[in-house]
Amino acid sequence: MRLDAFAVALCCVGCDALSSLPCGVGARVWARTADTLGDSEWVQARVLRRDPGQAVVVQLLEVENASVNATLPPTSLRTRHGGLCARAALCFFGRVGNLHGKFDEAGSASEALEVSSNSVWENVIRANPDLSWDIFAHTWDEAMGAAIGQAYRPTALVAEAQPRLENVLSFAEACRRAAALKARKEATDGFRYDLVLLMRWDIFFRRPLRLSHLVPTDRLWTGHWCSVHAEDLSVREVVLNETRDESDIRSQRSGVFAPSQFATSGLHDFWFAASSENIDRFAAWGQLVPGLRERYGLTTDEIPVHVGHFYTFLHARAIGLTLGYTGLSYLDYTLVRYRECRIQAEEVIRSPDVFCSHWEISVPRQCEQWLPTPEGWAAGYCPAAGRRATLSSGSRGCGRF
């Protein structure tokens, strides 16, 4: 059956007894397969096996002379009434933020929620039409509960006072509680989400974050962590301005994209995506923080600074999660307070496969020696590496990249 005939044929599906879940074992579904010419077609099928985080085994029922089994991603299945089989959970954590600065500088504001939520609906939820989304909202902003409910219509919402924890452990606890809201829904209804996106509130998406093709996945996905250095590599992590501030060594009119100095030891922790089981394991990362600090110490290669970037990376490694990267920080998404800083990647201006010999966190952020790396190494961490970074006309409010 051709894709354009799918809607017409829905009424023809038999009314066999189904399992308690529309796409559970024994259910009659529609399966999207490819014909001999590679074109998509929808055929009737029965679910034979469906394990959390795995592809689905179905029996195709419209094959001449015999039934054939196929293993398909849940995004290629529809219920007998045309509904989506693949289910995704979007779990928010932390503070809502504001349009002007960090939370501790300007608090949280409904205006930031409105701007960020519009970008999430367009570039995350609607950009992945093969996924049926439920939203789970946890925030330390007690006063923002009503605004969050209006912006996202979440399946579950908890807005509560922040416990007396220092910043890193507060971040970790927010992740854990957001994932726990999702887990309660699964336990109550007896299923597992095929994909879970764990995300901070204050992200502004410029381009679609495509996730449907990742399902099913055994990886922990996050964004490529890119930085922008001076074109001659004299300064790392510059601040781009249309007019250069001569008093600030980091102020540049253009730069060159490169992997972050910490791309090999940390995660760009704006968002994380994985199977439901792996998100549950990952979201417990705060429990390991004391032990990781004791093992590695601070201002070391493993934990250069006491921030979540490095603890999340070390935890993912400790529990055996393979990392995957999609989406480019600053180009595809940024923080809502930097929404008017529109950076663009232009032509390749230098070989990207170099890396600073030693990390350093200082005002000038210079590098004593740039070491060569294998060809293609930089693109794995930042696909825009080696390209000139400039600002679109009228950009403003940029931070350090």
Question: Summary?
Answer:
With 401 residues, the protein is α+β, with helices and mostly antiparallel strands. The chain is built from nine helices and 22 strands. It has a domain at 3-79: SH3 type barrels (Roll), CATH 2.30.30.
Q: Could you outline the blueprint of secondary structure elements for this entry?
A:
Layout: H1 6-9, E1 28-34, E2 40-50, E3 56-60, E4 68-72, E5 77-79, E6 87-93, H2 103-106, H3 110-125, E7 132-139, H4 145-152, E8 156-159, H5 167-189, E9 195-200, E10 203-205, E11 219-224, E12 226-229, E13 239-240, E14 251-252, E15 255-259, E16 268-274, H6 276-282, H7 289-296, H8 308-318, E17 322-328, E18 333-335, E19 343-348, E20 354-356, E21 370-372, H9 377-381, E22 387-391
Parallel strand pairs: 6-7, 6-9, 7-8, 11-17, 13-14
Antiparallel strand pairs: 1-2, 1-5, 2-3, 3-4, 9-16, 10-18, 11-16, 12-15, 15-22, 19-22, 20-21
Helix pairs in contact: 3-4
Keywords: Signal
Signal peptide: 1-17
- Treating each run of at least 4 consecutive H or I residues as one helix, how many helices? 9
Class of secondary structure makeup: alpha+beta
CATH architecture of the domain at 3-79: Roll
CATH class of the domain at 3-79: Mainly Beta
| Strand content range | 25-35%
The tally of strands reads 22
Order of the strands making up the biggest sheet: 8-7-6-9-16-11-17
The name CATH uses for the topology of the domain at 3-79 is: SH3 type barrels
Coarse shape: globular
Query: Whole-number radius of gyration?
Result: 23 Å
Mean model confidence by pLDDT:
90
- Given as residue ranges, the uncertain stretches (5+ residues, pLDDT < 50) are 1-19
Distance between the termini: 50 Å
Major sheet attributes = 7 strands, mixed
Report helical residue fraction: 10-25%
